[in-house]
Design brief:
This protein is α+β, with helices and mostly antiparallel strands. The chain has one domain (2-94). Helix content is 16%, strand content 36%. The chain is built from one helix and six strands; from the N terminus they run αββββββ. It has one helix at residues 2-17; strands at 30-35, 38-44, 47-51, 61-66, 69-75, 78-82. The protein has a six-stranded antiparallel beta sheet with strand order 3-2-1-4-5-6, with helices on one face.
């Protein structure tokens, strides 16, 4: 059974790594950051609607979701998935998108 679970994990990780990068002009309306304990931060239209306090050492992984899509996954300090590479990462990402 453990081998099947590990195989599924590898398949899932492989498919996630092959997802295309988000477009350079993508401006998310919602950003959510999770770790193994649950939601850490939620921002909607540039405003924090939820923040949790946790020591950085407590998080085995950080998963960034932008408008419900995985954008970045960091596990044990290693970037596993990075779909943000084409985006201009700046404070604009956290501001209200242009209508």
């Amino acid at each position: 059974m453990l081998n099947n679970i590990e195989s599924l994990k590898q398949l899932f990780a492989s498919r996630l790594r092959s997802m295309p990068s988000l477009p350079p002009n993508f401006t998310p309306s919602a950003i959510e950051i999770f770790d193994q304990h649950g939601l850490l931060v939620s921002m909607v239209l540039g405003e924090a609607v939820y923040e949790s306090e946790r020591s950085v050492d407590e998080s085995e992984y950080l998963a960034w979701f932008l408008d419900g899509e995985i954008g970045l996954l960091i596990q044990n300090g290693e970037i596993v998935i990075n779909r943000l590479e084409n985006m201009a990462l700046s404070h604009q990402m956290l501001e209200e998108p242009n209508a």
